[in-house]
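Reply to dn_fold:

You asked what the input looked like. This is it:
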Amino acid sequence: MKQILTVVLMSITALLMAQYEIPFGNIRHSSIDANGNIHLRWEDLSGGTLNPEFLYSANDAPWQSSPIQDISTGEKEALAPYTLGQKLRYRLHYSIEEMGESIAMMQSAYWDNDTFPPQLDKMAYIATDAEGDSVTVYSQNLDLRESYTAISSDKIYFSMQNLSGNFPIMNSLTSYNVYLGVLGNISSLMDSVGYAMIYSFNIPGVISSGLYKVGYDSATQMPVFTRLGNVQSQVSGGALNLACNISDLTADPDFGSLPDALLMLGLTLKIDIDLANMEPQMGLGDYSTPAVVIFQDNFYQVNQNTLPVCTFNSYDTITRLLQIDYLDTEADFPLLAEAELPDGTILQFVPTGVDYSLAVTYTLQLPSAEVDSLTWRFSDNGFDIVQGVVHLVANHDENLVPTNISCIMPNPIYSFPVNINLKGLCNKPIFIDIYNIKGQKVAELNQPPAINGELTISLAPKQLCSGVYFMKVKNGPYVFKQKFMVAK
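and this is what came back:
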């Protein structure tokens, strides 16, 4: 009994050590590009030594993988097809070696609705364990292979497959099998406490199916099993499916609130009852590939794209460092972030952060003090461009200020009227022309000088049928262009 608990806790301890070396971070998304994909990027913290897998699921469909490419040193990208209105979930899966063990480091599959038994292709695949790697006793029923997990707002799911495709709990009147889905909370592991969903025969005074806390009594040197609640269990399609209520776990003071990650693995035991003294003798069959399962529900769901708002921040004439603040309603990162100098040279902005739920400042190092103006361009989808002109002047020149025209409007436009918001305007009349894709002017919306550099106009011309259009804004010496789509 002591040996069994020791093996379990040693496996979870190995996971605990790996927990602080999560090999990925800061996963983020763009808007839908011209090819119908969103771009997902993240930092690869493994130094390129591991092979990650990117997976996505639209509207709770089975998970699919997508190729991964390197964007820059330490930055990776994958594409996922997207249709407006869908709920697209995505996650990462890494497999690493830690203390001689293969360990999965992964984000969980999230479900909006509970279903049992679960579909394996809608769960997060963990790994396939080696065949024939028993610890103390061997049986094809105890030899674990594939394992899977998922989580909803109410339940944690764990499924495992074995070599036989069957999960018998009774071998004879004196011999039984026990199958465990082990759950490790980091804080409780510090006190040598683990948790497990158990599927077994009801052996009075020994074990029965349920959710248990597994502790260790140092005085008696024996494990202590405390039943916390019931589990759902069913063998179907060659898999043993288990599920427990999160509330049963969090009600235990040693577990506490649901953490950001749990340590999971499957475990099999064989229990033989000695008829001479009615004492149970336990043998460890196998344990599956351990996993650090991170509870981060990554999803993207928008009905239409809102263009980012880009605002001039500052320009230092000594360091020649220009800063533009980028803010996107849907937290999309830009696929385009560049500046064009008067001689046609294109320079790339560099972000100072990657949390696009907030404004992110982009910086640009100008090559020469002779640059007196530039045009900046940002786009969250690669084709709808927000742009502006910045005139770079010395700080002591009070007669000149940087000019920074930006535009906020729905795109695509599904119905009229719509509001167009222009910012960064100078104190000059505003000439607004709209052209169709053939270059024909179809609307003219001229305006007097804006108050405080900002103007909101209503666009409601009935002559704009479905199609692609271009808006040209001329304000004093500055010209701003915007491409947009009408989809009635």
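The chain is about 5% helix and 50% strand.
Hope that clears it up.
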